[in-house]
Design goal:
The protein is an alpha+beta fold. The protein has helices spanning 8-24, 61-80, 114-119, 128-135, 182-185, 193-205, 210-223, 230-241, 249-280, and strands spanning 32-35, 40-44, 51-55, 84-85, 89-95, 98-106, 153-155, 160-162. The protein has a domain at 60-86 and 109-280. The strands form two sheets. A five-stranded antiparallel β-sheet has the order 1-2-3-6-5, with helices on both faces. Strands 4-8-7 form a three-stranded mixed β-sheet. The mean pLDDT is 91.
């Protein structure tokens, strides 16, 4: 069995703990090692984790098949473009007529994660992690991109590795994002899902060209409390992008301020949907509600 693989039995056990936590809203039995705005990264086994498991929303069989194929294709294209990707296994779990899948990776040393690498270092535009991060933008095309926030990478002093592949950023020939956002939008009240899909589609579409990805890197520094790294990062990114395409710290701050309005609003909508499903319809609500914005 590959080193990064957990058994199906392990994951069903984890899913049982997750289900109880969602039902009781008590997460104390979980080992939450990180979270984004949509997914939560869970350590397993809980007491002495060796793996990190990222849980998908419930899929139909057809939706899961498409998602699994897309993630696998995405990993292959990112690696072919020269960027290492953390070993990832996609394991589906059947639950009634739905499928929940877990993206499973080896649990990395926290000191190797990008934001912690920066926190442990003096701000410097020539820091090798920062140089490698800027160079990763060379793979960005109108068809392929990465979520290049510093939190989505590990650094082993010589190699940059992408750890976030759960949202495969690929576009078709007409500029349409290929991942189906609809299953993810079900975390929100039904009347607002069309608006959420529209806004999230607009949000990710800005990442299909290198300059906007660079601005988003800067924006994430504000979110992570790494303001002292903003100017060095801007210098490193602009060296790679070229003088005709300069980005500024002010643009990064503007991106951050936009996100600081969007994501908390979506979290408020999630709480409405959770109340509707659990209190009115007496059905489970399948998402944790976490945010990086206050």
């Amino acid at each position: 069995m590959p080193q990064n693989e957990l058994t199906e039995t392990d994951l069903y056990e984890l899913e049982a703990v997750v289900g109880k936590a969602l039902k009781t809203r008590d997460e104390s039995a979980l080992n939450i090692v990180g979270h984004g705005e949509i997914s939560v990264a869970l350590g397993w086994p809980i007491d002495n984790p060796t793996h990190v498991c990222k849980r998908s929303p419930p899929f139909t069989q057809q939706q899961f098949n498409a998602y699994q194929q897309l993630v696998s294709e995405y990993v292959g294209k990112v690696e072919a473009a020269g960027l290492a990707v953390a070993d990832t296994t996609i394991t589906p779990l059947t639950r009634g007529d739905k499928i929940v899948c877990y993206l499973v990776q080896p649990l990395l040393e926290t000191s190797t994660l990008g934001h912690n690498v920066l926190k442990a270092s003096e701000p410097d535009p020539d820091h090798p992690f920062l140089v490698a991060l800027a160079e990763s933008l060379n793979l960005v095309t109108p068809d392929l991109s990465i979520d290049a926030q510093v939190t989505n990478f590990s650094w082993d002093q010589s190699k940059l590795t992408l750890v976030d592949v759960g949202t495969p950023f690929m576009w078709d020939g007409n500029g349409k994002i290929r991942v189906d956002i609809a299953p993810f939008s079900r975390m929100l009240p039904a009347p607002t899902r069309w608006l959420a899909v529209r806004e999230l589609t607009k949000l990710v579409t800005r990442w299909n060209e290198p300059r906007s990805v660079g601005v988003d890197i800067v924006a994430n520094l504000y979110r992570e409390g790494l303001e002292e790294w903003v100017d060095p990062t801007v210098i490193a990114l602009n060296r790679m992008l070229g003088s005709h395409n300069l980005i500024t710290a002010a643009e990064g701050l503007s991106y951050f301020q936009e996100d600081a309005k969007l994501w908390p609003a979506l979290k408020r909508a999630q709480r409405v949907e959770r109340w509707w499903q659990t209190s009115v319809r007496r059905r489970p609500y399948d998402w944790f509600i976490h945010t990086s914005f206050g």
